[in-house]
Amino acid sequence: MVGDYTDSIPACLFSYQRWDIILDTSEHHDSSFNPLCFFVRLVGHFTFVFIPEPLPVMLPSYAVPADTTQCEIEVKRSRFIARATNIHCREEAMAFLAQAKIDHPHARHHCWAYLIGNPFSASSAAMNDDGEPGGTAGKPILNVMQHKKVGDIMIVVIRYFGGIKLGAGGLTRAYSSATEALFASMQLQQQQFAIQILLLCSFAQEQMVRHWVGQHDATIEAISYTQIVEITLSLPEKHKNNLILFCNTRHIKYRTKDAQP
Hints:
Layout: E1 5-16, E2 19-28, E3 36-42, E4 45-51, E5 62-65, E6 69-75, E7 78-86, H1 90-103, E8 109-116, E9 124-128, H2 138-148, E10 153-160, H3 167-185, E11 188-191, E12 195-201, H4 206-215, E13 219-225, E14 229-235, H5 240-249, E15 253-256
Antiparallel strand pairs: 1-2, 2-3, 3-4, 5-11, 6-7, 7-10, 8-9, 8-10, 12-14, 12-15, 13-14
Helix pairs in contact: 2-3
């Protein structure tokens, strides 16, 4: 064997006929040869199988809003108008909030929460009480959202004060109820992201990457800033070739997650 083997992906144990097989993958760091190496231990014997291309990371599907939804409830003369939409980044969430404020400029509160990515391991989540007592609006919205296990979602609950104070407990129940009612009328669909790809771009290229993401049903799972910008994307398999073309024409480096560039 040539080169140093490090950064092993955790082994997975599975059963094949009468034998237990341990499958472990590691990256080969020799500059002249860069495959993934699969180590298979079968009844005490080791077999080495080289695969020339890194494998994409397969991601599970999850429920997302199929369309923008709105409903309204009334609690002690206060109107609670809840609306939800599918989002892929914080900028889309804030644009949805801005539209809610335009549509209801005289409402006293525009409370919101969003969750981006797989709801079982969300890449980003946030909430805001917009002037309501702390923890009585944004948090109940987010709690219901997490309980429903729906991802890539932004919810805004707009409140018109009816003249009767609800108290902290009453507000929490009211915002929870508005969100529950919204989910009861919401149409869902399955979001299937097939692959994860890491992009290495300059600071000047970040905005054009974000624009591409918004146009191709992709999601930014993680982003870090050093001397360059490292962006981890999740995207449908059908858009992989479009992304590769986009990166090549702009000299943006890319690699499948857990693979050497």
